[in-house]
Amino acid sequence: MNNLKEFREKAQLTCNHLAALCNWKRGTRVSNYENEIRIPSLDDCRKIVFALNRKGVYCTLDMVFPPRSDIEEESAA
């Protein structure tokens, strides 16, 4: 689960506005990332975090897209 929607709302951005800041054509892409319909690439994650920080919302990559705990559990087994 990611925290994209929470940080986007803190920045008072719509999906369309955040997409525009990332140079994407549609907000559907952001919505799909928020709802985990699509998984963003590392490059897309960085674009999102950069855009949020430019809008005054302090966040890091791990804050917006926290590492999945199930991956850690699998590697420990």
Task: Please give a structural write-up.
- The protein has 77 residues and is mainly alpha-helical.
- The protein contains six helices and no strands.
- The longest helix is centred in the middle third of the chain and has 13 residues, at 42-54.
- The chain is globular.
Work out the number of β strands.
0
Q: What name does the CATH topology carry?
A: 434 Repressor (Amino-terminal Domain)
Helix content: 55-70%
| CA(first)-CA(last) distance | 22 Å
User: Element order, helices and strands?
Assistant: HHHHHH
Give the C-level CATH assignment. Answer: Mainly Alpha
Relative strand content:
under 5%
Rg, Å, rounded: 13 Å
Reported CATH architecture: Orthogonal Bundle
The poorly predicted ranges are none
Structural class per helix/strand content? mainly alpha
Number of domains: 1
Return the average pLDDT rounded to an integer.
92
The best one-word shape is globular
The CATH fourth-level homologous superfamily: lambda repressor-like DNA-binding domains
